[in-house]
Amino acid sequence: MTKKVERLDRVIIRFAGDSGDGMQLTGDRFTQETASFGNDLSTLPNFPAEIRAPAGTLPGVSSFQLHFADHDIMTPGDAPDVLVAMNPAALKANIGDLPRGATVIANTDEFTRRSLAKVGYTEDPLSDGSLAEYKVSKVPLTSMTVKAVEEFDVSKKDAERAKNMFALGLLSWMYNRPTEGTTSFLKSKFAAKPAILAANLAAFRAGWNFGETTEDFAVSYEVRPARLPSGTYRNITGNLATSYGLVAASRLTGLPLFLGSYPITPASDILHELSRHKRFGVRTFQAEDEIAGVGAALGAAFGGSLGVTTTSGPGMVLKGETLGLAVMTELPLIVVDVQRAGPSTGMPTKTEQADLLLALYGRNGESPLPVLAPRSPSDCFDIAIEAARIAVKYRTPVVVLSDGYLANGSEPWRIPDTTALPDLSVEFAAEANGEDGEFLPYLRDPETLARPWAVPGTPGLEHRIGGIEKADGGGGISYSPANHDLMVRSRQAKVDGIARDIPPLEVDDPDGADVLVLGWGGTYGSIAAAVRRVRRAGFRVAQAHLRHLNPFPENLGEVLNRYERVLVPEINLGQLSLLLRGRFLVDVIGYTKVRGLPFKAEELAGVVQEVIDRAE
C-alpha cells in the first residue's frame, strides 16, 4: 500500500528524553540530513545542567528542537508540531509547550508505574484522557528496538540504548529525510565495534520500516528545499563558526593562533575544535584555571601570536585583572565569552546575555576595550574575523559576547569565498622610532592611536612592559598625575576612534515606522521573526541590530532620535537599555526575561504590537 504524502512548508520537531537517551545525537543527525536536503533550518539544543541527574527525573530531561522549512526562517520555532517523548519525564517537561493538535510520539515501554511516580503522575497520561487535545501515537520504542537487534551479539543495555536510532529512523521516514549520511556516520562512529554498529543500523532501519508499514502513521510529509542564495552551504553551530573564524583570522593576519583556555560550559567546544587544527599553525593550551588561560594568551600576544582565550561569565570574572593588564600593555587579545545564565556558576547549560556590563566595566580603573556580539550561529565566523581586525589594528584586547543559544544552535552557512575576506596583515616594529635611535613602545600611530608591536628578541627594540602605568611614549614606569591622566584618556580615545572604522547601524524600515525594535547578540532571530509577524498583520515597525557594542556605531544616536518609541528586548534585566539611556538620553522601552531560554517570536510580536498601539 502506498501511503499519502502531504506537503508542508515548515515543521518544528522536538526530541526529548533522559540525558542518557541520546537526544542530542538524534537531533543532530536529523539536522545534518535536513541540511543536506537543502531546507533552511534553526536548532535549539537544551541540555540538563547536571552532569548526570537521576534517570527518569525532570532535571535529567534533555531535548533538541529543530525548525526546518522550504523558506527563510529565523528561529528554532516557538512551539513544536511534533514531540518525541522517550519517557514520562520528557512528556511532563515539554507538554506545556505544545499547541493544540500537535503530535506526541510516546515510548510506551517507559511509562511504567515507577517512572510515572518519579515525575508526579498518579495516572498514565497516555490513557487517562489528559492528552485528548493532541494526536498521540503510542509506540513501544524500547521493546521494538530490542526485538530488531536480537540477532546481534550485544548486551540488553546496548540494545535498549539503540532506541534513539529507531526513533530517528521513524522520524526520517515521516519527513522523507535522506538516510545515507546517518548510515555513514554510524559506520564511522562504531567502526571498531562491529556488533554495536550492526545493532544501531538495524534499529535505524527498523524505525524507518515501522513507519512504512504500520497503520498508526497513514501519512508522511514533505518539506521541499528552501530557495537560498546560490553557493556552497554546510550546517554550522556558533562555537564551530567561532573556531573557523579564528583560524581564518590567523591566516589573514599571518599570525600563529594561540588559544589559552580552561574548559567551561558552553565554550569548551571551541577549545576542542581548535585543538584539531595544528596543521594551520594553531596551538591550544588547556590551562589549570581561567587566570592561567588568559595569562598564557596574553603572553602569546606579547610574543607575536594572535592570542585568544575562551570562557563564560564565571571565567570572565576571574580573567578581569589580566584583561586590565592587556588594556595597560595595549596588546591584541581576543576574549570569547559564551554567556550563560548566572550569577555565580548559575545554570551552565542555559543561555543569557547578562555579561554586557561586565565586559564593558568589569575591571578596575578606566579599562576601555571594544565589545562585539554575533547575531546568529553563522555570524560568529564574521565576528571572530572582525574581532581580530580590530585587535591587531588598534592594539587592544577585544571581547566577543556570544551566548549558549548561539554556541549550540545551528543554521545553514554559506561558505565564503576566501579571496573576498579582508587582508589583515600585521607589520611588527622592525627598527627604532625615537629621535635618538631608541625604541619608544608607546609612540602612537596618529590615526589609530595604536602603539607599535615589537616581538621580543628584536635587536634594538628592548622595552618595558607590565601593569604599572606607562610614561607616554617611552613606556617606563610613571606616577606623574598629568601623565596618568594623559594615558587614561589616550586609551579611551583609541577605543572611541574605532567608531569611525565600523559600519553605520543599518535600519530595516520599509514603511517609515514610528516604532523601532533594537536588539543585540542572539536575540536577532526572535526579533526579526516577531517583526515579520507584525508587518504581516499590517502594521509598521522598524528593526535594527547592534553587533558593535563598544564603541557604538557613530549614527546610533541619530537612529534613536528618529523614532517615537524604541523597544529593546534583552535576556537580562535591561543592560543595553541602561547604556542607551545614559549615553543618548533616550527613554527606551526595555523588555526583559531571564529564563535561560531565547525569546519566542510570538511573545515578542505581542510586545511590539502593544508598543505600536501606545504610540498611536
Brief overview, please?
The protein has 616 residues and is α/β, with parallel strands linked by helices. It has 20 helices and 22 strands.
Record keyword descriptors for this entry.
Pyruvate-ferredoxin Oxidoreductase, domain 3; 22 strands; 4 domains; 616 residues; 37% helix; 7-stranded mixed beta sheet; globular; Rossmann fold; single chain; 6-stranded mixed beta sheet; alpha/beta
Order of strands across the biggest sheet? Answer: 11-10-12-13-15-14-20
Specify the oligomeric state: single chain
Largest sheet: 7 strands, mixed
Number of helical segments?
Answer: 20
Helix content: 25-40%
The domain tally reads 4
Task: List low-pLDDT spans.
Answer: none
Full CATH superfamily name of the largest domain: Pyruvate-ferredoxin oxidoreductase, PFOR, domain III
What is the terminal separation in angstroms? 59 Å
The CATH topology name of the largest domain reads Pyruvate-ferredoxin Oxidoreductase, domain 3
Would you report the number of β strands?
22
The mean pLDDT is 96
Provide the CATH top-level class of the largest domain: Alpha Beta
- β-strand percent reads 15-25%
Overall radius of gyration = 27 Å
Domain Pyruvate/ketoisovalerate oxidoreductase catalytic: 20-207
EC number: 1.2.7.11, 1.2.7.3
Protein name: 2-oxoglutarate ferredoxin oxidoreductase subunit alpha
InterPro entries: 2-oxoacid/accept_OxRdtase_asu, PFOR_II, Pyruvate:ferred/Flavod_OxRd, Pyrv/ketoisovalerate_OxRed_cat, Pyrv_Fd/Flavodoxin_OxRdtase_N, Pyrv_flavodox_OxRed_cen, THDP-binding, Transketo_C/PFOR_II
